[in-house]
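Hi R.,

Here's the chain you asked about this morning:
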Amino acid sequence: MWQSIRSSFAGLSSIVRNNKMDAAAPVVVYERGPHRSRITIVSILLDDQDRSLIADVCYENQWDVFFAKTCAEARQVSEQIKPHIILLDRDSADGDWRNSLSDCASSSAGACTLLISRVADDNLRNEVVRNGGYDVLPKPLREQAVLRAVKFAWSYWNSSRQGTAIPRNAASTKK
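And the predicted structure, written out as tokens:
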């Protein structure tokens, strides 16, 4: 029984992996099902491996994820679905990542924006927070790091709605 369940989970990542981003399909959507998940994510990632990992993590945790290839597309989707979290790849930012981060952070109902970057030091984290972001998620993406960062960001988003926000960058890890 568990093997059949596991194989159905594995099938999703192949669907996302095989759905390459092109002009005909600007936003690739994966939704868990007819009910709303606990966490909704908009992801601006161009790398297929990163998209696949995010899709796998979201599927395993019953989170909704919407993929966009530009900040403008992410903004359009964000206005409709009001995500909790936005994942912004520094390499896929439209122009300067600081402007893209500020746009993403201010585009929806207070979504926590995580910058995905190959560099993840304290200076970058401080700059991310100054530009309206929540934290930095280091590349290469690792499942446990994504889980931890998304859960901390969601916790912050949720507590900020209740007036009991935890300090920003609680998910940061020092190297």
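Helices lie at 2-18, 48-60, 71-81, 97-107, 122-130, 143-162.

Let me know if you need anything else.
M.
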